[in-house]
Protein backbone atom coordinates (compact mmCIF):
# COMPACT_ATOMS: atom_id res chain seq x y z
CA UNK A 1 0.00 0.00 0.00
CA UNK A 2 1.49 3.32 -1.12
CA UNK A 3 0.36 6.62 0.32
CA UNK A 4 0.63 10.13 -1.11
CA UNK A 5 3.10 11.10 1.60
CA UNK A 6 5.54 8.47 0.30
CA UNK A 7 5.29 9.87 -3.21
CA UNK A 8 5.90 13.36 -1.86
CA UNK A 9 9.05 12.14 -0.09
CA UNK A 10 10.37 10.62 -3.32
CA UNK A 11 9.99 13.95 -5.10
CA UNK A 12 11.43 15.84 -2.11
CA UNK A 13 14.66 13.86 -2.56
CA UNK A 14 15.05 15.35 -6.04
CA UNK A 15 13.12 18.62 -5.85
CA UNK A 16 12.80 19.80 -2.22
CA UNK A 17 9.77 21.97 -1.58
CA UNK A 18 11.92 24.62 0.09
CA UNK A 19 13.69 25.28 -3.22
CA UNK A 20 10.55 26.65 -4.89
CA UNK A 21 10.36 30.37 -5.64
CA UNK A 22 8.67 32.65 -3.12
CA UNK A 23 5.65 33.30 -5.32
CA UNK A 24 4.99 29.61 -5.94
CA UNK A 25 2.47 27.22 -4.38
CA UNK A 26 3.88 23.76 -5.04
CA UNK A 27 2.98 20.81 -2.84
CA UNK A 28 -0.20 18.94 -1.99
CA UNK A 29 -2.96 21.31 -3.13
CA UNK A 30 -5.96 19.03 -2.61
CA UNK A 31 -6.26 15.83 -0.60
CA UNK A 32 -4.73 14.11 2.41
CA UNK A 33 -1.16 12.87 2.63
CA UNK A 34 -2.26 9.55 4.13
CA UNK A 35 -4.49 8.65 1.16
CA UNK A 36 -3.63 5.36 -0.55
CA UNK A 37 -2.68 5.59 -4.24
CA UNK A 38 -2.97 2.90 -6.89
CA UNK A 39 -3.19 5.02 -10.05
CA UNK A 40 -1.85 8.48 -10.93
CA UNK A 41 -2.70 10.91 -13.73
CA UNK A 42 0.20 13.06 -14.99
CA UNK A 43 -0.41 16.49 -16.53
CA UNK A 44 1.06 19.96 -17.02
CA UNK A 45 -2.07 21.78 -15.84
CA UNK A 46 -5.03 20.75 -13.72
CA UNK A 47 -8.35 21.72 -15.29
CA UNK A 48 -11.92 20.49 -14.90
CA UNK A 49 -11.42 18.23 -17.92
CA UNK A 50 -8.28 16.75 -16.36
CA UNK A 51 -10.09 16.03 -13.09
CA UNK A 52 -12.92 14.41 -15.06
CA UNK A 53 -10.32 12.25 -16.80
CA UNK A 54 -8.89 11.23 -13.43
CA UNK A 55 -12.35 10.31 -12.16
CA UNK A 56 -13.19 8.32 -15.30
CA UNK A 57 -9.94 6.35 -15.03
CA UNK A 58 -10.05 5.74 -11.27
CA UNK A 59 -6.96 7.82 -10.51
CA UNK A 60 -6.65 8.79 -6.87
CA UNK A 61 -3.96 11.41 -7.53
CA UNK A 62 -3.18 14.03 -10.17
CA UNK A 63 0.42 15.20 -10.38
CA UNK A 64 0.68 18.51 -12.22
CA UNK A 65 3.46 20.93 -13.02
CA UNK A 66 1.46 24.13 -12.50
CA UNK A 67 -0.37 24.59 -9.18
CA UNK A 68 -4.11 25.07 -9.74
CA UNK A 69 -4.10 27.58 -6.88
CA UNK A 70 -1.50 30.36 -7.00
CA UNK A 71 -3.27 32.92 -4.86
CA UNK A 72 -5.50 32.60 -1.82
CA UNK A 73 -9.18 32.04 -2.58
CA UNK A 74 -11.43 34.47 -0.69
CA UNK A 75 -14.62 32.88 -2.02
CA UNK A 76 -15.45 29.34 -3.04
CA UNK A 77 -18.64 29.64 -5.07
CA UNK A 78 -17.35 27.93 -8.24
CA UNK A 79 -17.47 31.10 -10.32
CA UNK A 80 -13.95 30.62 -11.72
CA UNK A 81 -12.32 27.64 -13.40
CA UNK A 82 -9.94 27.37 -10.44
CA UNK A 83 -12.78 27.06 -7.92
CA UNK A 84 -14.72 24.62 -10.12
CA UNK A 85 -11.65 22.44 -10.67
CA UNK A 86 -10.79 22.26 -6.97
CA UNK A 87 -14.43 21.64 -5.99
CA UNK A 88 -14.72 18.80 -8.50
CA UNK A 89 -11.54 17.18 -7.16
CA UNK A 90 -12.68 17.47 -3.54
CA UNK A 91 -16.17 16.08 -4.27
CA UNK A 92 -14.65 13.05 -5.96
CA UNK A 93 -11.73 12.41 -3.57
CA UNK A 94 -9.09 13.16 -6.19
CA UNK A 95 -5.89 14.58 -4.71
CA UNK A 96 -3.76 17.15 -6.57
CA UNK A 97 0.01 17.45 -6.11
CA UNK A 98 1.93 20.22 -7.86
CA UNK A 99 5.68 20.26 -8.57
CA UNK A 100 6.51 23.58 -10.16
CA UNK A 101 9.53 25.80 -9.54
CA UNK A 102 11.07 23.28 -7.13
CA UNK A 103 11.24 20.88 -10.10
CA UNK A 104 12.38 23.71 -12.38
CA UNK A 105 15.26 24.38 -9.98
CA UNK A 106 16.36 20.75 -9.74
CA UNK A 107 19.43 19.47 -11.59
CA UNK A 108 17.36 16.40 -12.50
CA UNK A 109 14.20 18.29 -13.34
CA UNK A 110 12.48 20.14 -16.15
CA UNK A 111 15.47 21.86 -17.74
CA UNK A 112 17.57 18.71 -17.85
CA UNK A 113 15.03 16.86 -19.97
CA UNK A 114 14.67 19.89 -22.25
CA UNK A 115 18.44 19.97 -22.72
CA UNK A 116 18.56 16.25 -23.42
CA UNK A 117 15.75 16.50 -25.97
CA UNK A 118 17.77 18.98 -28.04
CA UNK A 119 21.00 17.04 -27.66
CA UNK A 120 23.01 19.14 -25.19
CA UNK A 121 25.97 17.69 -23.28
CA UNK A 122 28.09 18.84 -20.31
CA UNK A 123 25.03 20.19 -18.54
CA UNK A 124 25.15 22.53 -15.56
CA UNK A 125 22.78 24.88 -13.73
CA UNK A 126 22.75 28.30 -15.39
CA UNK A 127 22.10 30.30 -12.21
CA UNK A 128 22.80 28.22 -9.07
CA UNK A 129 21.16 29.01 -5.72
CA UNK A 130 24.01 30.00 -3.43
CA UNK A 131 26.91 27.55 -3.41
CA UNK A 132 24.80 24.53 -4.37
CA UNK A 133 25.43 23.79 -8.03
CA UNK A 134 22.67 21.15 -8.08
CA UNK A 135 19.87 23.66 -7.45
CA UNK A 136 19.01 26.76 -9.42
CA UNK A 137 17.37 28.31 -12.45
CA UNK A 138 17.91 27.30 -16.05
CA UNK A 139 20.55 25.06 -17.57
CA UNK A 140 23.40 25.45 -20.04
CA UNK A 141 25.25 22.92 -22.16
CA UNK A 142 26.84 22.31 -25.55
CA UNK A 143 25.93 20.62 -28.80
CA UNK A 144 28.29 17.92 -30.06
CA UNK A 145 29.44 20.36 -32.74
CA UNK A 146 28.65 23.81 -34.05
CA UNK A 147 25.42 24.09 -35.99
CA UNK A 148 24.12 26.69 -38.42
CA UNK A 149 21.20 28.72 -37.01
CA UNK A 150 18.75 27.35 -39.58
CA UNK A 151 19.63 23.79 -38.66
CA UNK A 152 19.39 24.57 -34.97
CA UNK A 153 15.96 26.13 -35.43
CA UNK A 154 14.80 22.98 -37.19
CA UNK A 155 16.26 20.85 -34.39
CA UNK A 156 14.39 22.82 -31.72
CA UNK A 157 11.13 22.93 -33.68
CA UNK A 158 11.21 19.17 -34.11
CA UNK A 159 12.21 18.47 -30.51
CA UNK A 160 9.41 20.62 -29.11
CA UNK A 161 6.92 19.77 -31.84
CA UNK A 162 6.25 23.51 -32.04
CA UNK A 163 3.97 25.02 -34.62
CA UNK A 164 6.21 28.06 -34.69
CA UNK A 165 9.23 29.51 -32.92
CA UNK A 166 9.59 33.22 -32.32
CA UNK A 167 13.26 34.16 -32.49
CA UNK A 168 15.73 36.98 -32.93
CA UNK A 169 18.15 37.37 -35.81
CA UNK A 170 20.89 34.71 -35.70
CA UNK A 171 24.22 36.07 -34.45
CA UNK A 172 26.60 33.19 -35.22
CA UNK A 173 26.78 29.42 -35.40
CA UNK A 174 25.30 27.65 -32.39
CA UNK A 175 27.29 25.49 -29.96
CA UNK A 176 26.62 26.67 -26.39
CA UNK A 177 22.92 26.74 -25.51
CA UNK A 178 21.04 27.89 -22.40
CA UNK A 179 17.49 26.72 -21.66
CA UNK A 180 14.71 27.47 -19.21
CA UNK A 181 11.29 25.85 -19.24
CA UNK A 182 8.32 28.19 -18.96
CA UNK A 183 8.95 31.92 -18.60
CA UNK A 184 12.71 32.43 -18.37
CA UNK A 185 13.47 35.87 -19.79
CA UNK A 186 14.92 36.83 -16.39
CA UNK A 187 17.87 34.55 -17.22
CA UNK A 188 18.80 36.18 -20.52
CA UNK A 189 21.60 38.31 -19.10
CA UNK A 190 23.10 35.31 -17.30
CA UNK A 191 22.99 33.30 -20.53
CA UNK A 192 24.83 36.12 -22.31
CA UNK A 193 27.32 36.40 -19.45
CA UNK A 194 28.17 32.71 -19.78
CA UNK A 195 28.70 33.01 -23.52
CA UNK A 196 25.66 31.08 -24.74
CA UNK A 197 25.09 31.33 -28.48
CA UNK A 198 21.37 30.73 -28.04
CA UNK A 199 18.80 30.87 -25.26
CA UNK A 200 15.57 28.87 -25.38
CA UNK A 201 12.62 29.82 -23.18
CA UNK A 202 8.99 30.90 -23.35
CA UNK A 203 6.88 34.00 -22.79
CA UNK A 204 9.34 36.57 -24.11
CA UNK A 205 7.71 40.00 -24.44
CA UNK A 206 8.26 42.17 -27.49
CA UNK A 207 10.75 44.56 -25.89
CA UNK A 208 12.65 41.73 -24.24
CA UNK A 209 13.71 40.44 -27.66
CA UNK A 210 15.69 43.68 -28.10
CA UNK A 211 17.78 42.68 -25.08
CA UNK A 212 19.53 40.08 -27.23
CA UNK A 213 21.53 43.07 -28.56
CA UNK A 214 23.14 41.01 -31.33
CA UNK A 215 24.98 38.99 -28.67
CA UNK A 216 22.76 35.92 -28.48
CA UNK A 217 19.92 34.27 -30.38
CA UNK A 218 16.63 34.03 -28.46
CA UNK A 219 14.25 31.19 -29.33
CA UNK A 220 10.73 31.15 -27.90
CA UNK A 221 8.84 27.93 -28.72
CA UNK A 222 6.02 28.76 -26.29
CA UNK A 223 5.41 28.30 -22.57
CA UNK A 224 3.48 25.04 -22.77
CA UNK A 225 5.74 23.66 -25.49
CA UNK A 226 8.87 24.26 -23.42
CA UNK A 227 7.42 22.44 -20.38
CA UNK A 228 5.59 19.58 -22.07
CA UNK A 229 8.27 17.04 -21.17
CA UNK A 230 7.72 17.57 -17.43
CA UNK A 231 5.29 14.65 -17.33
CA UNK A 232 8.14 12.41 -18.46
CA UNK A 233 10.18 13.56 -15.46
CA UNK A 234 7.22 12.67 -13.21
CA UNK A 235 6.97 9.26 -14.84
CA UNK A 236 10.67 8.49 -14.44
CA UNK A 237 10.71 9.37 -10.75
CA UNK A 238 7.55 7.44 -9.89
CA UNK A 239 8.46 4.38 -11.97
CA UNK A 240 11.88 4.14 -10.32
CA UNK A 241 10.46 4.42 -6.81
CA UNK A 242 7.02 2.85 -7.12
CA UNK A 243 6.99 0.36 -10.02
CA UNK A 244 3.62 -1.06 -8.95
CA UNK A 245 1.73 2.22 -9.29
CA UNK A 246 -0.19 2.58 -12.56
CA UNK A 247 0.53 5.78 -14.47
CA UNK A 248 -1.56 7.56 -17.07
CA UNK A 249 -0.46 10.51 -19.17
CA UNK A 250 -3.35 12.93 -19.52
CA UNK A 251 -4.89 13.05 -22.97
CA UNK A 252 -6.32 16.51 -22.31
CA UNK A 253 -4.41 19.23 -24.17
CA UNK A 254 -4.32 22.00 -21.57
CA UNK A 255 -2.41 24.56 -23.64
CA UNK A 256 -4.83 27.54 -23.78
CA UNK A 257 -3.02 29.11 -26.75
CA UNK A 258 -4.17 28.28 -30.27
CA UNK A 259 -2.57 29.31 -33.57
CA UNK A 260 -4.18 30.45 -36.81
CA UNK A 261 -2.15 30.09 -40.01
Shape: globular
The residue fraction in helices comes out at 25-40%
CATH architecture assignment of the largest domain: 3-Layer(aba) Sandwich
Number of strands: 11
Account of the protein in words:
This protein is of the alpha/beta class. The chain has two domains: 4-102 and 228-249, NIF3 (NGG1p interacting factor 3)-like (Udp-n-acetylmuramoylalanyl-d-glutamate--2,6- Diaminopimelate Ligase, Chain: A, domain 1); 105-220, Udp-n-acetylmuramoylalanyl-d-glutamate--2,6- Diaminopimelate Ligase, Chain: A, domain 1, CATH 3.40.1390.30. 31% of the residues lie in helices and 26% in strands. The chain is built from ten helices and eleven strands. The protein has helices at 4-12, 48-56, 81-91, 101-104, 110-117, 149-160, 188-193, 206-210, 223-227, 230-241; strands spanning 27-30, 39-43, 61-64, 95-98, 121-129, 132-147, 166-167, 174-183, 198-202, 217-220, 246-249. The strands form two sheets. The chain has a six-stranded mixed beta sheet with strand order 5-6-8-9-10-7. Helix 2 runs parallel beside helix 3 (81-91). The N and C termini lie far apart (50 Å).
